[in-house]
Amino acid sequence: MRWMDFLAVEAIRPALQARDGDSLLWELAGLLAPEAGVTQPVIAEHLRARERLGSTVMEGGVAIPHCRVEGARGIVTCLGLHRGGLAFGEPEDGLVRIFVGMVAPPDTAGLHLNVLSRIAALLHTAPLRDALLRTMTAAEAHTLLAQAEASLHPHPVDPPRRAGLRG
What we know:
By secondary structure, the protein is α/β, with parallel strands linked by helices. It has one domain: Mannitol-specific EII, Chain A (3-Layer(aba) Sandwich), CATH 3.40.930.10. It has five helices and six strands; from the N terminus they run βααβββββααα. Strands 1, 2, 3, 4, 5 and 6 form a six-stranded mixed β-sheet that branches. Strand 5 (76-87) and strand 6 (95-104) form a beta hairpin. The longest helix has 16 residues, at 21-36. The model is unreliable at 156-167 (pLDDT under 50).
């Protein structure tokens, strides 16, 4: 299983415009909606509800807001970079600069957790995070992540491909 199986270049925004947590979740929902087949408002509300349960911020200025939504066509992720950093989550979390959004159907709980684990493992390393923040285009970010992921130990799960892909 590879994170890149669930991340389309079109779902990467190298310069998020959000000014607060609510607008950030709205922006991520907009990146997720086309591939997920669920509307932006529905995804945004589910992301907000999940964040109310507990912050999805991890060390290194990374957050992975995620939710499960009835009607989603499959697991879909997006990536957004906030150049200046955004206060997100708890005050002690500090500024977040890398956001990975994820939406999944309710019946994919195990796979959903495996994808989250894979994303966290990949973004755990500071050199990769720094390199990612230096990318200027969605294609550059996707290529960098694909190369970094290729060097990780493969995950034993072989999931169905991202929504909308065949084969």
